[in-house]
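Re: [help] complex structure
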Amino acid sequence: MTYELHYWPGLQGRGEFVRLALETAGADYVDIARGQDGLERMTDVFDDPAQPHPPFAPPVLKDGDLLIGQTAAILLYLGPRLGLAPDSEGDRLWTHQIQLTIADLVTEAHDTHHPVATGLYYEDQMAEAARRAADFRANRLPKFLDWFERILTRNPTSGGGPWLVGDRTTYADLSLFQALEGLSYAFPKAMARLLPDRPRLQRLHAAVLTLPRLRAYIDRGPRIPFNQQDILRRYPELDD
Amino acid sequence: MTYELHYWPGLQGRGEFVRLALETAGADYVDIARGQDGLERMTDVFDDPAQPHPPFAPPVLKDGDLLIGQTAAILLYLGPRLGLAPDSEGDRLWTHQIQLTIADLVTEAHDTHHPVATGLYYEDQMAEAARRAADFRANRLPKFLDWFERILTRNPTSGGGPWLVGDRTTYADLSLFQALEGLSYAFPKAMARLLPDRPRLQRLHAAVLTLPRLRAYIDRGPRIPFNQQDILRRYPELDD
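Output below.
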């Protein structure tokens, strides 16, 4: 069965968290919005009045008749099917809990450049963005990074390895890698200050880059570069 | 087994989404932070260095050795155990997806009064709050309410009933009820404008109030009234 991923074509965004799982597992999937009539086919998923479970927003995964929205729900579904989830219910819940916390971090990071309204331009909310970004850099970002460092340190079944849950790669590892990538794009100065004291985060980031299929995807594409339409954006004035 | 709920004692907050499920099912649980040495016992869950899966933030559910953070993950776990989740995997994912969208709405509603920093007082971000709340009332709130109305209308197995998924109450119904309660507390004028055109939302809200155990909990307590320390707060200037 070929999975369909429905997400905006011009950015990594939240779709990239799903893509990294599909790519790392070598899964058969189509990135609908990047193909022929892609945006129309994506829009159909949201606008089809016969769709009993219309999603609220992209990304959406389609697997046969099943349509799943919300990034963390998609990964909850894909994890076991792609060999990227642990075996026990407790560990699966823990992996999902980590994913939800990564999602919270990504939302807060996004809101640094759009603290008033996603429907307005950044230029219309620069003063508010400056205040929110200052708090994010000083308080929220270190709090999140500390938590990830802590749970990496405490993983009771890591076997000395670099992963968040147990001794195998899960989708949460890929998502944390992706969050770190986005944060380093958007806040290079803040991350250059924060990462050296957090060796487990660095180790996880490096370990993900050794996964052969993921490495090939990053080196050869079709990964889209980070850009100023993405969830995380580089505004130097927000990264002091 | 007695569940332990760990959440701040003085507000409904995100803990209330878990409480409503536990109360509606008549589950055996202890609201730790409201009991003897409650805040200390709650803090221990976060600070215990021997805890392999320390949560990021309250609410936290403890079931024996299992500790679960993130409201939606807690309800994903509790749903089937409390008889508040549908049977099939597809419907359970759909219920979870709805819950995650309710969580997004609650976060956006919270951010209307704290758009800059949760660590600052409202009084230190009133100008930003006014702008964010205006966008929330005009764009985001109607968009969310329309989506809930739409999925209530489309529920293919409702059997004519009022529920979001299938023909039985799920935790998502209780959570949507709770979100509507909070929004009507915080934005009475906006909600009085928006609800009349959305009959399915009104019907769901009324139907939840007929559930005997939930009704008793709301009438007799120990439900805490909404207040100005809660996630959703009533600032009349934000509700134009």
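The mean pLDDT of chain B is 96.
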